[in-house]
């Protein structure tokens, strides 16, 4: 019988290689690779058949799940409530978080605020901010402007990965920020900086550092023109949490979305406001998407959208203008243009609201982006209101998806949406039929068709 081949294991990161090497290819530790003891072949044991080969002796024995401590991976709050909300309570020791976003959206500003608040928690907490894109002076200027200067915040302008590990050994931080992973260079790995090979190697090394030392690592990542994380797809598999930081350059509102989270829900959303003096958490963003007025104006309707688990109130506006142009214009902002065109067609066919000889403009307030079908009915009533020049009743919120046959379909989380609307002072709601329970003290009209929704409104809002 052939003698089983020997294997070699790194004592630092437990990486296994087929032959001895002087430097571990996984964690770059020198002289840590040793021959691993082998177990007897399974095939040679009495009563066994099939698989052949020898196994490695485990460094730590397997234990019952009930004996594994649940406090090891307990999240620690960062001090930034909206970030903690998306992370599921805070940062887990030894975790790797990837924060991706477009240039200028505020990624570095957000993480600079994180390291500042982290260092303020206790005298034992030190944070290390490693930047490969800016000089130390540039980061200090931003810290002065945002008030993020602290004695226990350490800064290193470095792009060599081995030198970064040296800084970690000297500082002994409890939190590590790398800005950005595409600017780091592993000298012993082929490929250009920011290339697929380099990004994969750098991320793998930083992940090993986090798992072996227990230091949580936050990585800033670039995005492509399509909005995807730049680099290999394996990058998102290597890390524990993937967050996307989004925002319109014409607005100060920023949204932090969880895409992947091994420690909590992956559909949470955090809201921030980017200002000249830093970044602030927005715990109640619904007010940003509503235009406050004493009376409602013709052509406006309020709806509630679900962004992850968060209910956000938004205002839909419609404007209908007569025109002599044989091809009337359709302009849309903040919504899907194809969806608006479909709602116009359903209004004409099943609601009697004809706009074939009129220009139609549809938009949202405050830069809000409405993509879910639950806003269909609000859009339809806003356009009908504008076409008749009659305002909807005050305190009204509208929910529902409109089908091509003119039916109003149910949407998810109606009770949560209405509870948020009631909290902000809305007293009347139009919802699809069989939408479940609703908050006490709120008048709710359930409709099954678009025509019924139009009849619920004042008589002058009926079919035109």
Automatic annotation (TrEMBL):
Record keywords, A-Z: ATP-binding, DNA damage, DNA repair, DNA-binding, Hydrolase, Metal-binding, Nucleotide-binding, Stress response, Zinc, Zinc-finger
Pfam families recorded: AAA_25, ChlI, Zn_ribbon_LapB
GO molecular function, one term: hydrolase activity
The keyword NADP appears for this protein: no
Source superkingdom: Bacteria
GO-annotated cellular components: cytosol
Start and end residues of each stretch annotated as Lon-protease-like: 359-464
RecA family profile domain boundaries: 72-223
InterPro entries linked to this entry: AAA+_ATPase (IPR003593), DNA_repair_RadA (IPR004504), P-loop_NTPase (IPR027417), RecA_ATP-bd (IPR020588), Ribosomal_Su5_D2-typ_SF (IPR020568), Ribsml_uS5_D2-typ_fold_subgr (IPR014721), Rubredoxin_2 (IPR041166)
GO BP annotations, alphabetical order: recombinational repair
Residues the record lists as binding ATP: 101-108
Segments carrying motif RadA KNRFG motif: 260-264
Notes concerning its domains: The middle region has homology to RecA with ATPase motifs including the RadA KNRFG motif, while the C-terminus is homologous to Lon protease.
HAMAP family given in the database record: RadA_bact (MF_01498)
Functional description taken from the UniProt entry: Plays a role in repairing double-strand DNA breaks, probably involving stabilizing or processing branched DNA or blocked replication forks. DNA-dependent ATPase involved in processing of recombination intermediates, plays a role in repairing DNA breaks. Stimulates the branch migration of RecA-mediated strand transfer reactions, allowing the 3' invading strand to extend heteroduplex DNA faster. Binds ssDNA in the presence of ADP but not other nucleotides, has ATPase activity that is stimulated by ssDNA and various branched DNA structures, but inhibited by SSB. Does not have RecA's homology-searching function.
Family per similarity comment: Belongs to the RecA family. RadA subfamily.
Protein name listed in UniProt: DNA repair protein RadA
Organism this protein belongs to: Rhodococcus spelaei
Lineage, highest ranks first: Bacteria, Bacillati, Actinomycetota, Actinomycetes, Mycobacteriales
């Amino acid at each position: 019988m052939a003698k089983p081949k020997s294997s070699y294991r790194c004592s630092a990161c437990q990486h296994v290689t087929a032959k001895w090497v002087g430097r571990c290819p996984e964690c770059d530790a020198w002289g840590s690779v040793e021959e691993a003891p082998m177990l007897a072949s399974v095939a040679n044991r009495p009563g066994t058949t099939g698989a052949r080969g020898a196994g490695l002796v485990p460094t730590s024995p397997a234990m019952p799940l009930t004996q594994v401590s649940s406090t090891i991976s307990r999240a620690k709050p960062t001090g930034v409530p909206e970030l903690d909300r998306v992370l599921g309570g805070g940062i887990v020791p030894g975790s790797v978080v990837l924060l991706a976003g477009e240039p200028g959206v505020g990624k570095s500003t957000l993480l600079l605020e994180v390291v500042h608040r982290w260092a303020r928690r206790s005298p034992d907490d030190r944070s290390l901010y490693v930047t490969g894109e800016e000089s130390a002076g540039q980061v200090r200027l931003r810290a002065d402007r945002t008030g993020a200067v602290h004695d226990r915040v350490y800064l290193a302008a470095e792009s060599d990965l081995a030198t970064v590990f040296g800084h970690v050994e000297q500082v002994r931080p409890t939190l590590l920020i790398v800005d950005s992973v595409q600017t780091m260079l592993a000298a012993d790995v082929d490929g250009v900086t920011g290339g697929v090979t380099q990004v994969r190697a750098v991320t793998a090394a930083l992940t090993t550092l986090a798992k072996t030392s227990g230091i949580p690592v936050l990585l800033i990542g670039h995005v492509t023109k399509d909005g995807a994380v730049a680099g290999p797809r394996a990058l998102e598999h290597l890390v524990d949490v993937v967050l996307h930081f989004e925002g319109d350059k014409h607005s100060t509102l920023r949204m932090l979305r969880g895409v992947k989270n091994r420690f909590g829900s992956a559909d949470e959303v955090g809201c921030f406001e980017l200002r000249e003096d830093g970044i602030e958490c927005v715990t109640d963003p619904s007010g940003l998407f509503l235009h406050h007025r004493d009376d409602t104006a013709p052509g406006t309707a309020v709806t509630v959208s679900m962004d992850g688990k968060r209910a956000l109130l938004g205002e839909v506006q419609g404007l209908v203008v007569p025109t002599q142009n044989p091809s009337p214009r359709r302009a849309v902002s903040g919504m899907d243009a194809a969806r608006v065109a479909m709602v116009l067609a359903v209004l004409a066919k099943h609601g009697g609201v004809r706009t074939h000889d009129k220009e139609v403009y549809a938009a949202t307030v405050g830069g809000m982006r409405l993509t879910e079908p639950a806003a269909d009915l609000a859009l339809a009533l806003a356009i009908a209101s504008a076409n008749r020049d009659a305002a909807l009743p005050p305190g009204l919120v509208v929910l529902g998806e409109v089908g091509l046959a003119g039916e109003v379909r149910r949407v998810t989380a109606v009770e949560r949406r209405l509870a948020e609307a009631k909290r902000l002072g809305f007293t009347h709601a139009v919802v699809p039929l069989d939408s479940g329970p609703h908050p006490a003290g709120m008048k709710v009209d359930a409709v099954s068709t678009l025509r019924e929704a139009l009849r619920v409104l004042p008589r002058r809002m009926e079919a035109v």
